[in-house]
Write a structure and sequence with these properties.
By secondary structure, this protein is α/β, with parallel strands linked by helices. It has a single domain, classed as NAD(P)-binding Rossmann-like Domain (Rossmann fold). The protein is built from nine helices and seven strands. A seven-stranded parallel β-sheet has the order 3-2-1-4-5-6-7, with helices on both faces. Helix 1 links the parallel strand 1 and strand 2. Helix 1 packs across helix 9, helix 3 runs parallel beside helix 4 and helix 4 runs parallel beside helix 6. The site of nicotinamide-adenine-dinucleotide (NAD) has 31 residues, from helix 1, helix 4 and helix 7.
């Protein structure tokens, strides 16, 4: 898809991988609808982007919040062509805690609700809007949906039962949703990042994050940078032959139990 003038929703836009995706897509000429639940940081990102940006405080896990926000994007820009799902949380707990307590069901429901249900909630409303686009180019493309999974989908660490399950769910839905949407000319691709230098890992002391890098990442010996993720988002949006797959972006990482 040619990105110039296209309309892209990015969730999790206020931070990390979502913020970088907004910047990369805007540089390529796309008009950005930035969604996040963090109003203050969202405002900072929109100031940074300047230009033709719509920002909405959205809870991706909430049906009405997403439905209203997608309608607002179409009302404002006239169409929707790209949806990038980056909103996510990584709350962790052991299945049985050191005090003998079970994994809190509220934590499980929160992580699955945002990472998995939230991703699908955006997909379904965005896809409806994309079906209304005129087909473009030789392949008659109407839209592209890009999701964020994780290496933890298949290599989850201690405490990551909910997070890993949510991300395995994102990988699992990629093919059937791509199959559902193929007749409408809409592609669906997921990215499985390894360890990226974002707010999600910012809480770690540098010694801990470097030790993870040293033990788990093959080469190059560092965390990924958000613009490396965003570069792949842009490529997926532009490359009409990428569909129904999950791409690992992880410098050959192999996660250990902790
Ligand atoms: N950073 C990494 O190493 C890494 C690795 C693998 C996968 N991921 C995934 O990448 C995605 C982006 O993560 P990041 O590293 O940029 O984290 P981040 O914490 O920097 O950004 C996540 C953003 O999502 C927003 N968000 C959370 N819940 C939301 C909700 N219910 N509705 C709307 N917005 C919500 C937050 O406010 C935040 O701005 C996540 O899905 C994460 O699981 C990150």
């Amino acid at each position: 898809m040619q990105l110039d003038g296209k309309v892209a929703i990015v969730t999790g836009a206020a931070s990390g991988l979502g913020r970088a995706s907004c910047i990369a897509l805007a540089k390529a000429g796309a008009r950005i609808a930035a969604f996040d639940r963090d109003e203050a940081r969202l405002a900072d990102v929109c100031r940074e982007l300047g230009g033709d940006v719509l920002s909405r405080v959205v809870d991706v896990a909430n049906e009405e919040s997403v439905s209203t926000a997608v309608d607002a994007v179409v009302a404002n820009f006239g169409a929707l062509h790209i949806a990038v799902n980056c909103a996510g949380v990584a709350d962790a707990s052991k299945t049985v805690s050191s005090k003998g307590q079970p994994f809190p069901l509220a934590t499980w429901s929160k992580v699955i609700g945002i990472n998995l249900t939230g991703t699908f909630n955006i997909i379904r409303f965005a896809a409806v809007a994309m079906t209304r686009n005129a087909p473009e180019g030789a392949s008659g493309e109407r839209g592209v949906i890009i999701n964020t999974a994780s290496g933890a989908a298949s290599q989850g660490q201690v405490g990551q039962a909910a997070y890993s399950a949510s991300k395995a769910g994102v990988i699992g839905l990629t093919l059937p949703v791509a199959r559902d949407l193929a007749e409408h000319g809409i592609r669906v691709v997921s990215i499985a990042p390894g360890l990226f230098d974002t707010g999600m890992v910012a809480g770690m002391p540098p010694k801990v994050s470097q030790s993870i890098v040293d033990r788990m990442i093959l080469y190059p010996n560092r965390m990924g940078q958000p613009d490396e993720f965003a570069g792949l988002v842009r490529h997926i949006a532009e490359n009409a032959y990428l569909n129904a797959t999950t791409i690992s972006l992880d410098a050959g990482a192999r996660m250990q139990p902790r």
